[in-house]
Design a protein that fits this description.
The protein is an alpha/beta fold. It has one domain: 2-Layer Sandwich (Nucleotidyltransferase, domain 5), CATH 3.30.420. 36% of the residues lie in helices and 16% in strands. The protein has six helices and five strands; from the N terminus they run E-E-H-E-H-H-E-E-H-H-H. It has a five-stranded mixed sheet, sandwiched between helices. Helix 1 crosses helix 4. The longest helix has 22 residues. It is globular.
């Protein structure tokens, strides 16, 4: 059972990102403030859920959250600032868009660049421990998937409608064969899938 809050004194938002390990596309992040009495039997880390349940949960999260926002940092910015900083920047952009200003942030992971003067706590595997981080993980993941499906039509040979930009064998083989698109992260190393056979 996931926990509702890390602390009970301040307005708390959970934050998470999606797409950090991808070779193409933006990194997306979400920030979510849930009501104190929010509970959901299915809500969990987005990686533990199938696509259908993620999209069902997204509707409920958006309807029931006190406030929520999704933001992204594109591949060009990722190449400029590196993926870790881009992940934090995407979270900052999401927090900025919240209609209610949070006084405390809980962040999935072990590092974060402070957002203004707002207190925060980093929680390893927080998306499997706290409802608001799990909710943020679902929003970030589904909005990123929507984006990748949209651009997949422009470059169908990379199989983004299936791999969403992650470094699958087919995705890496296609890059090595025909090169990069304007959506690829050029600072990410693409290894030859054949090398892994040895």
């Amino acid at each position: 059972m996931l926990l509702g809050r890390y602390q009970h004194e301040f307005i708390e938002a959970g934050c998470d990102e999606a797409g950090r390990g991808c070779l193409a596309g933006p990194v997306f992040a979400a920030a979510v403030i849930l009501p104190d009495d929010f509970e959901h039997a299915l809500l969990n880390d987005s990686k533990q859920l199938n696509e259908e349940i993620r999209y069902q949960l997204r509707i409920e999260i958006e309807q029931k959250a006190v406030a929520w926002a999704v933001a992204s940092v594109d591949n060009l910015e990722i190449d400029q600032v590196n993926i870790l900083n881009a992940s934090f920047l995407a979270m900052h952009r999401a927090i900025e868009q919240l209609t209610l200003v949070p006084q405390f942030l809980i962040i999935d992971g072990n590092r974060f660049n402070k957002y203004k003067a707002t207190a925060h706590k980093c929680i390893v595997e927080g998306d499997a421990k706290y409802l608001s981080i799990a909710a943020a993980s679902i929003l970030a993941k589904t909005y990123r998937d929507d984006y990748m499906k949209q651009i997949a039509a422009e470059h169908p040979e990379y199989d983004w409608h299936k791999n969403k930009g992650y470094p699958t064998i087919k995705h890496r083989e296609t890059i090595l064969k025909i090169g990069y698109t304007p959506y690829h992260r050029l600072t990410f190393r693409v290894t030859d899938p054949q090398l892994e056979l040895f």
